[in-house]
Automatic annotation (TrEMBL):
Domain Catechol dioxygenase N-terminal, residue spans: 22-94
Named cofactor requirement(s): Fe(3+)
Protein family according to the UniProt entry: Belongs to the intradiol ring-cleavage dioxygenase family.
Protein name as catalogued: Dioxygenase
GO MF term list: dioxygenase activity
Keywords: Dioxygenase, Iron, Metal-binding, Oxidoreductase
Domain of life per record: Bacteria
Domain Intradiol ring-cleavage dioxygenases intervals: 116-284
Keyword Iron-sulfur (UniProt): no
Amino acid sequence: MYVDEDNITDLAARRWATAHSPRQAELMTAMIRHLHAFAREVQLTEDEWMAAIQWLTEAGRISDDKRQELILTSDVLGLSMLVVQLNNRFSAQATPATVLGPFHIDGSPAAPYGFDMSDGIPGTPLFVTGKVVDVDGKPVPAAVLDAWQADADGAYEAQIPEIDEARLRAKYQAREDGTYCIRTIAPRGYAIPMDGPVGELIGATDISYFRPAHVHFLIDEPGYRKLITHLFQEGSEYLDSDVVFGTKDALIVRFTEKPAGTAPDGSHIEQPYLHAEYDFVLQPG
Ligand code: BEZ
Ligand code: FE
């Protein structure tokens, strides 16, 4: 049978239903039905389709091992956060997940309790302390917290060319009782990268392209579900308009101002600092 406007969707879906993996067949046929429905609904023109192809080509071209324009695309469309929600419908006491974002770098260096991952980068000192526990409140001994963040200008290491050592990222080892202590600098709200195809699209709208101040965490312990999340600073600008839809009430934490003196890890600090306290609660899995 040859194609016409009415039978093309069924023909294409049936062809892709032959995928050897049943799950792939399901994904491909559903994607075809939704894409075709979209084209019909908006009566997609050939020029619009070609502009979309060129946009995707540019998003791929600009991406590399440090820049990920396609993750950013998924983030600003709300798709990343939808996938997070669909895959993390668990107990209400557990720490909620949020987007990974495009700036995580694998293989951060191991860091002991109280290690300063800011290493002299200018900013207000910030200590983040607490425990890693399970849903019953029992400590997860020696959990590893992979932490990363932007500097006070909103730049991540992945955005700074020719950097050859870890910058504002480290894998913190909690102690046997689950307690951890991170020393860093206070993050600031920042603009997502606007110099590529995502920025071009957003620039043609009224969308606010900022994220509220946050620190990222990834905790992947055997016997528990992998947790990818952030802690957001209470009162930070953009909490209500996060361009990637990542903010959650349970992840907003007070950054309390403290005077110079004894820091949370027992060391001496000569300037005022901020202190955030948060217990990460992991789901069994
Ligand atoms: C981030 O927080 O690192 C981020 C997440 C999504 C898009 C852009 C940045
Ligand atoms: Fe971030």
